[in-house]
Amino acid sequence: MAEWIYFIYPSRDDFAATITEPEKRVWAEHFERLEKLLVEGTLIIAGPTLGRINTGIAVFEAPDEQTARRIMEDDPTISSGFATGELRGFKVALLRGRDD
Prior knowledge:
Elements: E1 2-10, H1 15-18, H2 21-40, E2 43-48, E3 56-62, H3 65-73, H4 76-79, E4 83-90
Antiparallel strand pairs: 1-3, 1-4, 2-3
């Protein structure tokens, strides 16, 4: 199984500080979806960068780029248009608990 990372770029800087109610609902759906992917064993790690620019990241496994792209594009933050996504191949080189 290949590893992938996607970056989530919100529509503006200071997104976390200026989030609207409709955006909060979509981000809640996004979080629930990530929790589901974690339980299914697809998601490895996810979270936002902090500070003025709030880029999100999700590292996950998928068998091929087409499947990985679908996972990214189905993210509610991206499919709603509140954010854009960027997909890249990724390799978890060191992982606490696995490689110590």
